[in-house]
Amino acid sequence: MDLLSAAYGATSDDDDGGGGTKATPTPSWVTTGFSSAAGPPLKRPRWERPTYLPPPPCPITEPALPRTAPPPANPAASGRYVSKREWALLAASRSPVESSSPLPPSAAAEVDSPAVGSISDLNLRADIFHSLRCQPKPKSTRRLPLKLSISLASQTKAVNCIDWSPSHAHLLASASMDRTVHVFNVWNKGNTTACVFKFHTTAVKDVRWSLNGLSLLSGGLDCSLRLVDVEKGKEIKVFKEDQAVEVMKFNPSNSNLFLSGGSKGSLRLWDIRSGLVSKEYQRSLGTILDIEFSSDGKQFICSTDTSRSNISENSIIIWDTLRQVPLSNQVYTEAFTCPCVRYHPFEASFVAQSNGNYIAMFSARSPFKLNKYMRYEGHGVWGFPIKCNFSFSGKELASGSSDGCIYFYDYKSSRLLSKIEAFKEPCTDVAYHPVMPNVIASCSWAGEISVFE
């Protein structure tokens, strides 16, 4: 090494420019100040794979993923190894997300929709379709309904009330003790059951069509009144009571108002637009059995169930609708309750179905006296909620009966015109068709509904 150092470290003769040999130029790295120990830098740096460096000791805060974000479908796609334990945890984390997913739209619609058939009148019998479109006016006729036209699907328990739609006269509604409200497309060639509403939680005591449009109002023992849009199959409003609802009626002069009566004897006039009580008629009464508006809506009658000694003062009461005061409370002096009261469509009189097994007639003008010479007898009541109704001409009066028959009386003479055997069980309600005068619907304590023509 010493010899090599001496040989290369000695100054060459050519360094001083002597001889004919050209001097070697000085490298640039010497003039730039690099020491001889470091050596010259590479002219072209060679690319090397970057070395993985561990994270710095200070933790880096990363944004947290939302809890609702589902895990990746395939974690192995990231290129890392996934253990069996991690796969199991991943599957467990996915199960609650999948179980809470909503039902498909079709399944949800089947659960919520009460529609069973159609409410359209395009599939009716030809003769019925023609009669409904021609809109014959109820005129003087002695053609009484005698022939069974159709028996509708029976409900599982007693039917309390039936009502024809005034605007869609092929539809019939019923209220039943089985907690349902049925709408029947009576003469439909296919399925006659159009809708079944199950919004009430207990027995439904009364149902009424709105005076305009396809809306139904029902009341039941669950202390509620429910307004339903039949076309959409949805509940529009719920009116809460502090008593079981027994009966309700729309005011004929204002379709936004209806009157309700219940088990505690309260009478309330409701406004559909606000959903609130506009008037309340206070008096110590028993259960309200029936109510009926006069044709102008200025008065209404209520019949009550009471067992006190002053039954003659509470059995039937005439009220002034606006002033909220009773016009008379000593109308019916006999010791019987009346499950049904009805105004005559044209004359100043009304009738009351008596538990004495007859129908009594009263004057609709003060002092509202009982007509002692007119009494419709022959049918039986015997404690059942038997109802009666006038024909739209006002010439006949039809009544259900405890023997399952329908009885037809002449209004002027109270003479029995005819009777037809409708059911084996008591016939609870009868309702004349609003367009065809020779058609009547009836229902029974056994849940049957029949239409006669």
Automatic annotation (TrEMBL):
Which Gene3D superfamilies does the protein's record reference?
Answer: YVTN repeat-like/Quinoprotein amine dehydrogenase (2.130.10.10)
Sequence ranges assigned to domain Translation initiation factor beta propellor-like in this UniProt record: 191-320
Which keywords describe this protein according to UniProt? WD repeat
What ranges does the record give for the region Disordered, renumbered to this chain? Answer: 1-78
**Compositional bias of type Low complexity: which residue ranges?**
1-11
Entries under Pfam families matching the protein: eIF2A, WD40
The keyword NAD belongs to this UniProt entry's keyword annotation? no
Q: Which residues form a coiled coil?
A: none
Q: Where would I find the WD repeats?
A: 152-186, 197-238, 238-280
> PANTHER family of this UniProt entry?
TRANSDUCIN/WD40 REPEAT-LIKE SUPERFAMILY PROTEIN, WD REPEAT-CONTAINING PROTEIN 25
Protein's recorded name:
Translation initiation factor beta propellor-like domain-containing protein
What species was this sequence derived from?
A: Oryza meyeriana var. granulata
